[in-house]
Design goal:
Oligomer: single chain
Helix content: 40-55%
Largest sheet: 5 strands, antiparallel
Number of domains: 3
Order of helices and strands: HEEEEEEEHHHHHEHEEHHEE
Distance between the termini: 30 Å
Number of strands: 12
């Protein structure tokens, strides 16, 4: 999962949790507010009940009940009850059921709030007050209670949450959009980091630089440090390759001189064997040095295929094989490949030399860009190479046969692969077409 998607999902989960907690908190706050308002209204109704009590033949009675009609409607949701030592008086809404007030001790005038079960099993919010009756009401203690169905409070809370839901949804979308914008701005340096690395790989720039946020700067610094170490190692590799070439060419040249003296002394057969061995050694050395030089190429190397092909063809035209064929070049100007000119000249020269050797009458060089790469082809009208032997020529360390023929194609394949490309062999109808696909 991408970093952006992980952060977006984490942000979405956090927003949902925060909104859920907020909705729960608002619901509790609104419920407490509604309950306080209900208790305040019930306090007024309780005062009306206390003010309307009178003494009757059978005890206390309520001469002036509260005006709300729900007190007179059976199970109407609002109830009052007066309880004293001699009996109980209750509202018509309670019908034939009495409220079971808890056995708690209230001081005179003290008010308690209870939650009880109503006449039909519903939950009730009850406001109770204990009073000492005056002499005109018979004296003694009385408990007066007013109750209302809690369903009304629950309905008010649900209505509040239903009204709040669209705003919570809009807030969720706004927070998600703000979070996505924050992610886009915050992760923009990472996108720039990828683009900078791609430019570094393509040789457009030499270093990552220091113009990065503090969190990304250590990564860029480490990449630059690795590049510096790699360039130092590449320089050492080039030096070692040059030293190897210099150290081996002199002994090989001396060996060829010994073979010449042996031939002059009458040992032609022995001299020929020494010369063949020395030539094979020289070719092997040249190949390995070419590989080392190609592997150590600079990351900002650039070469123009048209210019390199022109120089290579000019040299080959002065050779016996190159002079007998017709050269055709169809390479547009302005192309560029990520390879040093010397490496491209060596690879192109090895392929073109083989093409001239096997061509009947003509060799064609062409190039075209294709999906960020350049396809540089050398085609001849010779006998070609059987398909079953082509894989051996382009494979790493491969040769066409054990005698060493086809070494030029193997060297070219090493150079092309070291540059991040590949070598392709196909039929030219007639002849063989060798294509270097280079970045």
């Amino acid at each position: 999962m991408s970093l952006r998607l992980r952060l977006a999902l984490a942000g979405a989960v956090a927003i949902l949790i925060a909104l859920a907690l907020m909705a729960f908190g608002l619901s509790q706050l609104f419920g407490a507010h509604v309950e306080r308002r209900a208790v305040a209204e019930m306090g007024v109704q309780l005062d009306q009940v206390l003010a309307g009590m009178e003494a009757g033949q059978d005890g206390l009675t309520l001469a002036r009940p509260p005006a709300d009609p729900r007190f007179d409607t059976p199970y109407g949701g609002l109830y009052w009850q007066i309880e004293w030592v001699g009996g109980v008086e209750r509202s018509r809404s309670l019908w034939d059921v009495a409220l079971s007030l808890p056995d708690d001790v209230l001081d005179d005038g003290a008010v308690h709030v209870h939650r009880l079960i109503g006449p039909q099993g519903e939950r009730l919010l009850v406001l109770e007050q204990s009073v000492i009756l005056p002499a005109r009401l018979g004296g003694g203690d009385a408990r007066v209670a007013v109750a209302m169905a809690a369903a009304e409070l629950d309905a008010a809370r649900r209505a509040f949450m239903a009204d709040l839901a669209p705003y919570l949804g809009f807030l969720a979308l706004a927070l998600a959009g703000a979070g996505w914008a924050q992610l886009s701005i915050g992760l923009r340096p990472l996108k720039g980091l990828g683009a900078r690395v791609a430019a570094l790989r393509d040789g457009e720039i030499g270093r990552m630089g220091i113009d990065w946020p503090v969190e990304v700067r250590p990564v860029a610094a480490e990449i630059d440090a690795l590049l510096s170490e790699r360039e130092a190692e590449l320089a050492r590799a080039r030096t070692r390759a040059a030293d190897l070439a210099h150290g081996l060419k002199t002994p090989l040249q001396a060996l060829m001189g010994e073979a010449a003296r042996l031939r002059a002394a009458g040992g032609a057969v022995q001299a020929e064997g020494i010369e063949e061995t020395a030539v094979a050694m020289r070719r092997a050395v040249d190949r390995e040095i070419s590989r080392a030089r190609s592997a150590a190429r600079l990351s900002d190397a650039r070469a123009d295929p048209a210019e390199v092909a022109t120089r290579v063809v000019a040299v080959l035209r002065r050779t016996p094989d190159g002079a007998r064929v017709t050269w055709s070049q169809n390479i547009p100007d302005g192309l560029s490949v990520a390879l040093e000119e010397s490496d491209l000249a060596e690879a192109l020269g090895a392929i073109a030399e083989n093409a001239a050797r096997h061509a009947h009458s003509c060799v064609t060089l062409s190039a075209r860009p294709c999906e960020g790469r350049v396809r540089l082809s050398i085609a001849d009208d010779g006998p070609g190479i059987p398909a079953k032997r082509r894989a051996a020529l382009v494979a790493r360390h491969g040769r066409a046969d054990e005698s060493g023929s086809g070494l030029g194609l193997a060297i070219a394949a090493e150079i092309v692969e070291a540059a991040g490309g590949q070598l392709e062999l196909s039929d030219a109808k007639p002849g063989l077409s060798v294509t270097m696909v280079l970045p």
